[in-house]
Amino acid sequence: MINYILILIFQIAFNIFKVLEIRYTYENKIKLLIMNTVWINLAALGSVFYSIESLFRKDYLGILFYIMGSIIGKWFAMTHYENYRSKIFSFFKRKESEESLS
Questions:
Q1: CB crowding 29-56: b at 16 or more within 10 Å, else e
Q2: Where are the alpha helices (DSSP H) in the chain?
């Protein structure tokens, strides 16, 4: 049971760090991007280690926790961190629609 929880936690962390990697790249924050890369790699190693270990023991339930962790991590990162690109797009879209009304 501890393996399943570790897989879930590592996958959630990996996906959160992956979303942050995209954000830091877009914002050109090199120092944060480098530090984030270390955490991505550690989370990936932990996730793959425990997942493969389970598969070698013919325990396929780990796949479910792997996928659930991916979904939860991606959802959390997308809903709890600001999406600046979307805000910029909606800002310009709003300006465009205001100009067309004038």
A1: eeeebeebeeebeebbebbeebbeebee
A2: 2-27, 30-56, 61-80, 84-101
Work out how many domains the chain is built from and give that number.
1
Count of alpha carbons within 13 angstroms of residue 67, beta-carbon side: 5
CB 18 within 8 A of CB 78: no
How far apart CA 34 and CA 32 sit, in angstroms, is: 6
Q: Domain of 53?
A: 2-101
| Cβ within 8 Å of residue 63, ≥6 positions away | 51, 55
6-41 residue pLDDT tens? 999 999 999 999 999 988 898 899 999 999 999 999
CA 34 to CA 91: how far, in whole Å?
30
How many whole angstroms separate alpha carbon 71 and alpha carbon 33?
23
Tokens standing for residue 73: 């991590």
Tokens of residue 17, six digits:
């760090």
